[in-house]
């Protein structure tokens, strides 16, 4: 009996020893990012390269940008995530709340489009987006309509009842669309009066429905309800992959820049490894794989895109010269007031 207990104890010690050895050899690092196509692209094609090269396990914590930021704030004294991806508007809030660490100086930062580097390198764009015009190609063909070319097409009476607009109070796409149209009406981020006062006589009559986000678009495109809507090339690509008849049109006035930024979380458990992961994710090889796996448009100028993406987007270097860059600090300062007014005045 005593001999048996000794063997059992020995076996337990050996097991603990192997477990401790395995634990010491493989670290785990956590990344917060959007779920769905983005998570699938990174977990299947991008992150495995970093895992192999560094003998580390990378675990994605999926959620919207707002969800990820909420988790950061809830655990800001002992954060569980090492690196986070946030939409640029949410990232501006995260930086102001002090949850991001300055990126280490690295040659990869110089490879990014200049607008992708945040002030003070406290974060950087990892995916380039631009909110332009998505449209239903089957509906347009059936009606004999030429593809849209301008933000002001949303106010064209011929599209009455065929415009779907995401809520500017809950969607970046909707907010971008509103700000772009407001700008063409003489406004700016510091003056949204033209957009609000003229909406009811311009875009408003064409809108069949305001939706809180883009989740309902698939259904509305299939039924022919949605003809025209603010969207990014990547989101349009995701819809096309589902077999939906959609295309992206770049407005002649320029699309609105939409970045997915990354930052290294302040006070994270392994700052050195987190910085290393951030540099890897910003690199040309990583972004080239993200483009091939999930149509993620690179912010690294040395990255490549598959031929179908290049054909769909055209010359990316030329496109980014025309994008409109919004001031998120100004927007976030006024956002609550705008949201209240949008809900009360536009979607009443």
UniProtKB/TrEMBL annotation:
CDD domains recorded: PBP2_polyamine_RpCGA009
Keywords: Signal
Any Pfam family hit: SBP_bac_8
Gene3D superfamilies with a match to the protein in the record: Periplasmic binding protein-like II
SUPFAM superfamilies hit by this protein: Periplasmic binding protein-like II
Keyword Signal: yes
Listed InterPro entries: SBP
Signal peptide annotation: 1-24
PANTHER family: ABC TRANSPORTER SUBSTRATE-BINDING PROTEIN, THIAMINE-BINDING PERIPLASMIC PROTEIN-RELATED
Official protein name in the record: Spermidine/putrescine transport system substrate-binding protein
């Amino acid at each position: 009996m005593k001999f048996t207990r000794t063997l059992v104890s020995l076996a337990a010690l050996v097991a603990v020893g192997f477990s401790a050895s395995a634990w010491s050899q493989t670290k785990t690092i956590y990344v917060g990012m959007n779920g769905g196509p983005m998570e699938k692209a990174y977990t299947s094609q991008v992150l495995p390269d970093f895992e192999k090269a560094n003998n580390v396990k990378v675990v994605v914590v999926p959620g919207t940008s707002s969800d990820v930021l909420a988790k950061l704030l809830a655990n800001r004294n002992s954060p569980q995530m090492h690196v986070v991806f946030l939409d640029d508007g949410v990232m501006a809030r995260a930086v102001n709340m002090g949850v991001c660490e300055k990126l280490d100086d690295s040659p990869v930062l110089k490879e990014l489009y200049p607008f992708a580097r945040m002030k003070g390198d406290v974060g950087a764009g990892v995916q380039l987006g631009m909110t332009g015009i998505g449209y239903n190609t089957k509906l347009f063909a059936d009606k004999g309509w030429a593809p849209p070319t301008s933000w002001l097409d949303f106010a064209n009476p011929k599209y009455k009842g065929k415009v779907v607009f995401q809520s500017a109070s809950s969607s970046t796409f909707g907010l971008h669309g509103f700000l772009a149209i407001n700008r063409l009406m003489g406004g700016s981020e510091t003056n949204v009066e033209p957009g609000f006062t003229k909406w009811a006589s311009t875009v408003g009559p064409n809108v069949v429905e305001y939706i809180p986000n883009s989740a309902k678009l698939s259904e509305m495109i299939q039924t022919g309800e949605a003809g025209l809507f603010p969207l990014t090339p990547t989101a349009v690509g995701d819809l096309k992959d589902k077999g939906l008849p959609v295309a992206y049109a770049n407005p002649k006035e320029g699309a609105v820049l939409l970045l997915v930024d990354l930052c290294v979380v302040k006070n994270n458990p392994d700052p050195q490894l987190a910085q290393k992961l951030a540099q890897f994710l910003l690199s040309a090889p990583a972004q080239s794989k993200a483009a091939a796996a999930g149509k993620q448009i690179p912010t690294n100028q040395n990255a490549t895109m598959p031929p179908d993406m290049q054909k769909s987007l055209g010359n990316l270097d030329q496109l980014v010269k025309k994008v409109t860059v919004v001031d998120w600090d100004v927007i976030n300062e006024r956002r609550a007031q705008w949201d209240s007014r949008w809900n009360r005045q536009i979607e009443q």
